[in-house]
């Protein structure tokens, strides 16, 4: 499936309201079987490594992947599976936690702008500047007019990155409430996973409907031609991983990174 086909199936159209209740988080229709999806993931992960090598060598453009989701949707697992074969030289992954006092003393985009990818790099935001219109909206951390202004500021910020050569794809990992419950319970029941559990996740879970609404508003206001939002069904890990890998691969192929021509004549050069 081409990037255009992926966009038609999974991207949120600009200025449109997506009802997440109408998107099946257990959908698996893109691949014929789990075996096919896992084979596709292996092939796409290898291709991403090759494309990233060209991107790094070319040094003219970059890719930013934004991952957002409710708790336990699998952001970390997605990154490991999709980029597990990618040379780390040109790959950066950032996780944005609660803002520090220093970060709060600046505008909300200050901390993320510093992590935007340089030319030749792929950067992954595990959570991102969208926390400032999601958490802030649900918990009313700032005035309503401030949240409203932030949507336009985000669009301008992303358009600026795009203008200077950064391709942006934003992915929402769409997990069901029941699947989230099972995954959070696993973090309690399995000793090796308890380090991942935060009792505060249960408090956030009580705001499930408010967060869903906040995501829908963010998609409507901030899915643009230069930085589209993609909603990826995430109840099945193998399906989620394969879809994100396919999206990243097709995006990199569309960018057409190329190895630069040498600034010397290789003919006649012999290393002795």
Our estimate of the beta-strand percent is 5-15%
- Under CATH, the topology can be stated as Rossmann fold
CATH top level class name: Alpha Beta
What is the H/E string?
HHEHEHHEHHEHHHEH
CATH hierarchy: architecture: 3-Layer(aba) Sandwich
Cα-to-Cα separation, first versus last residue = 48 Å
Notable traits:
272 residues, 5 strands, globular, Rossmann fold, five-stranded parallel sheet, 11 helices, alpha/beta
Kindly describe this structure.
- With 272 residues, the chain is α/β, with parallel strands linked by helices.
- The protein has one domain (3-175, 214-255): Rossmann fold, CATH 3.40.50.
- It is built from 11 helices and 5 strands, in the order ααβαβααβααβαααβα.
- The protein has helices at 3-10, 34-58, 75-83, 101-104, 110-113, 131-138, 144-163, 177-189, 200-205, 208-222, 237-255; strands at residues 62-69, 91-95, 122-126, 166-174, 229-233.
- A 5-stranded parallel beta sheet has the order 2-3-1-4-5, sandwiched between helices.
- Helix 6 packs antiparallel against helix 7 (144-163).
- The protein is globular and about 70 Å long.
- The N and C termini lie far apart (48 Å).
- The mean pLDDT is 96.
What is the structure about, briefly put?
With 272 residues, this protein is of the alpha/beta class. The chain has eleven helices and five strands.
């Amino acid at each position: 499936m081409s990037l255009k086909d992926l966009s038609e199936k999974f991207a949120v159209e600009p200025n449109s309201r997506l009802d997440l209740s109408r998107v099946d988080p257990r959908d698996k229709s893109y691949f014929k079987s789990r075996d096919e999806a896992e084979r596709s993931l292996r092939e796409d992960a290898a291709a991403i490594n090759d494309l990233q090598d060209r991107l790094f060598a070319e040094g003219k453009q970059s890719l930013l992947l934004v991952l957002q989701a409710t708790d336990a949707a699998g952001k970390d697992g997605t990154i490991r599976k999709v980029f597990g074969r990618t040379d780390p030289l040109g790959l950066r992954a950032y996780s944005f936690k609660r803002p520090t006092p220093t970060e709060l003393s600046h505008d909300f985009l200050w901390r993320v702008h510093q992590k935007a990818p340089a030319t030749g790099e792929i950067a992954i935001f595990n959570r991102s500047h969208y926390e400032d219109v999601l958490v802030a909206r649900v918990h009313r951390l700032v005035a309503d007019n401030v949240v409203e202004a932030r949507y336009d500021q985000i669009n301008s910020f992303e358009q600026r990155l795009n203008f200077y050569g950064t391709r942006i794809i934003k992915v929402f990992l769409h997990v069901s409430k029941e699947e989230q419950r099972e995954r959070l319970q696993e973090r309690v029941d399995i000793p090796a996973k308890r380090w991942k559990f935060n009792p505060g996740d249960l408090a956030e879970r009580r705001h499930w409907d408010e967060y869903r609404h906040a995501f829908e508003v963010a998609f409507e206001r901030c899915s643009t031609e230069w930085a589209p939002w993609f909603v990826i069904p995430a109840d099945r890990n193998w399906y989620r991983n394969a879809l994100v890998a396919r999206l990243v691969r097709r995006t990199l192929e569309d960018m057409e990174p190329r190895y630069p021509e040498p600034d010397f004549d290789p003919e006649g050069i012999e290393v002795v």
